[in-house]
Design a protein that fits this description.
Alpha-Beta Plaits; elongated; Immunoglobulin-like; five-stranded antiparallel beta sheet
């Protein structure tokens, strides 16, 4: 079962397997040459498609090993502070590169997102002009800027041109952003807002899990949505009564098995947290939680950790830092 959007390899493997299992027995059974020719034609087409997609993948991979994919835009009105959320797949390590550029009038704001793409299947139109609150945003125009620069480098940008109904201050809220959404706050100019007072207004709204899309992506868009991160951030927590279990596992991963892990997952391993859980959270067996697109990394870690483990997707309501990709709860069975 896939943990995230299907990759190009999944797409090609699935279709090649269907063609081979359906066509080869028919061709080898001695039927007429016409049947074999009918089978070979779609096979050649898929081979050409595969070569084209892989060539495209090689070119884009050299430009950006990670980035963002924009799937949808939502506006959450608030009494004092409103929030504009961009849904999709995002890399928290690249949040600092996003810029917000207001004009002098305070009615127009340009948001520039480097290393980003627009999902053309989920966002066929590049203009948004219908929002739940008419006194906040009049229109949002999306622009995908892809250009070739010196040294055969490709530059990917997504620009959001936001037309406001009143003077507003727009800011990126990194703490409220996750790998599945970017969150921007909208505050009317000249109005001071207490963060503690306003936090209660939007906590429940932003905590709602994003809807699961059941759209089969074109293989090129699937490839772009499944971006390979450059670092695997792992948190290790001792959920056993054995003292020092988390420290011993962290040493095993970082010092003894680092090269093996990094070769298998294709990322740099970083243990970002070592701690313990409360007494009531003691586990008899080690449990591994993973974020979307991190199932392969979780399986790799489980293969290296001694004993049996349970692997589960990370719950959306878990208070984990957005930069943590895999959480390992060291159980009683870890020796």
């Amino acid at each position: 079962m896939l943990s995230g959007p299907p990759t190009v390899a999944h797409f090609l493997h699935f279709n090649f397997r269907n063609l081979l299992t359906a066509g080869i027995p028919q061709a080898m059974s001695g039927r007429k040459t016409l049947a074999t020719a009918v089978f070979m034609k779609p096979l050649i087409q898929y081979l050409l498609l595969g070569l084209s997609v892989l060539a495209f993948a090689e070119g884009t991979a050299s430009a950006a090993n990670s980035g963002h994919m924009l799937d949808n835009i939502e506006l959450i009105p608030g009494e004092k502070t409103s929030y504009l959320t961009l849904k999709g797949y995002f890399e928290p390590e690249l949040f600092q590169e996003i810029s917000v550029q207001p004009d002098e009038s305070g009615r127009e704001t340009l948001v520039v997102i480097p290393n980003a793409f627009i999902n053309n299947l989920l966002i066929p139109n590049r203009e948004f002009n219908q929002f739940p609150a008419e006194n906040l945003i009049r229109q949002i125009q999306l622009e995908e800027d892809i250009r070739e620069e010196a040294g055969n480098q490709v530059r990917f940008l997504v620009n959001l041109k936001i037309s406001l109904a009143q003077e507003m201050e727009i800011a990126l809220e990194i703490e409220k952003s996750t790998p599945r959404q970017l969150t921007f706050s909208l505050i009317p100019s000249g109005r001071l807002v207490s963060p503690d007072t306003d936090k209660a207004e939007v906590t429940d709204v932003l905590a709602q899990p994003p809807p699961e899309e059941s759209v089969l992506l074109h293989p090129v868009f699937a490839m772009l949505a499944y971006r390979q991160p450059i670092r695997l951030n792992v948190s290790v927590l001792n959920a056993s009564r054995h003292v020092g279990g988390a420290q011993r596992l962290a040493i095993l991963l970082e010092r003894q098995q680092r090269r093996r892990i990094e070769q298998r997952v294709g990322m740099r391993l970083e243990v970002v947290n070592i701690s313990s859980v409360q007494e009531q959270m003691i586990l008899p067996r080690t449990k591994i939680y993973y974020r979307p697109n991190m199932l392969k990394s979780a399986i790799t870690l489980a293969d290296i950790i001694p004993g049996e483990q349970t692997i589960e997707p990370m719950p959306l309501n878990r208070g984990t830092k957005p930069t943590t990709d895999v959480e390992i709860y060291v159980g009683q069975n870890f020796e």
